[in-house]
Amino acid sequence: MGPSHAPKFPDIALDPPPKLHLPGRELPQACHSAHIHTVPDDIVQRRIKRKLQTNVLVVGGGLTSAQISDLAIRKSVTKVYHIMRGPCRVRPFDLDLSWMSKYRNPRLAQFWSADTDLERLDLIKDARGGGSLTPIFYKKLMQHGAAGRLHHHTFTRLTSATFIHPPEPGVDSGGHWRVETDPPIADLPPMDYIYFATGMPPDLASFPCLRSMSAQYPVDSVGGLPCLTDQLRWRDDVPLFVTGALAGLRVGPGAGNLGGARLAAERIALEIEGMRLGDACDEDAGVAERDEPMLRYSMGLGSKFSALTSS
Fold first, then answer.
1. Residue 255 in 3-state DSSP?
2. For 129-161, what is each residue's pLDDT tens digit?
3. What is the pLDDT of residue 115?
């Protein structure tokens, strides 16, 4: 469904505070990465054309933050300050390879055999482990840093940000951000713009398109993720199927990736086929029994040999 729910901002003092009900207009000269219109923003571009020093702050430790930093520098921003609250993780995917390689079955079996959804949520958090950069973009950031265009700070938190209006409106009618970090960054200049690449974690309650469904057909949730059926139905009595990151408790940590999409598609297709056949011949019990081995195989709990049938 894309970025249709509330963005996540750092838990800091923002002056003025973000207005989350106005997508793309939460803050002056700042925005969440899900609401970007241009990089750099129009006001920064005007300052670049006037040959002024421009400084941009990027907050976040994921691939999106690296892409914003790289693009801003290539678009002639003088300096980019890129801060992240943890280490700089570099890996090809946003999951450890043990969850994605040909040896992933033991990890998936561990996930699907968990006793409770709380245990599964813990496994999801541990597997994803925060944002990461691909080796290609990490190399680009290091090149910008060597050229003096990028200041990259790990284990650094943004503690406050205050927007300062100029005493008299200038040509661009804008101001600057005065920011503070922990630990402090020496000689940190005022920022012309701030990009918050701080993610949008899936949360069932924040999707407007699911509010009426949740009200009429409530389901339990854990960590913002719905407790679906094993066939990825909303409920046994509701023919609504959920895939993507919201299906994480049933598909696994890679639910939002292509691998998770494939697993989810197999389960949903099998269930829809069972529904179609059940409606046609009114043999729901027989169809469910016949498709059970294939369903278990799609969940990683059996083998494809057990799903074969003889004619």
1. coil
2. 778 888 999 999 999 999 999 999 999 999 888
3. 86
CA–CA gap between residue 245 and residue 203 (Å, rounded): 10
User: Where do the domains of the chain lie?
Assistant: 13-94+131-196, 204-300
- CA distances 306 to 119, 290, 296, 309, Å, are 28, 11, 9, 8
The predicted pLDDT at position 24 comes to: 45
The answer, yes or no, to whether the previous bond of 239 is cis (omega within 30 of 0) is no
The SS3 assignment for 105 reads: helix
Give which of 157, 151, 13, 150 is closest to 85, Cα–Cα. Answer: 157
More confident residue, 109 or 54: 54
Please identify which residue in the block is written with the tokens 């950031």: 141
Strands (E), 69-169: 79-83, 150-153, 157-164
CB contact at 8 A, 30 and 190 = no
Given the DSSP bridges, would you call strands 221-222 and 225-226 parallel, antiparallel or unpaired?
A: antiparallel
CA dihedral 287, 293, 294, 296 (to 10 degrees): 120
The answer to whether domain 13-94+131-196 has CATH 3.50.50.60 is yes
Q: What whole-number distance in Å separates Cα of residue 30 and Cα of residue 56?
A: 10
CA 129 to each of CA 99, 124, 179, 288: distance values in angstroms, whole numbers, following the listed order? 13, 8, 27, 37
3 state SS of 219: coil
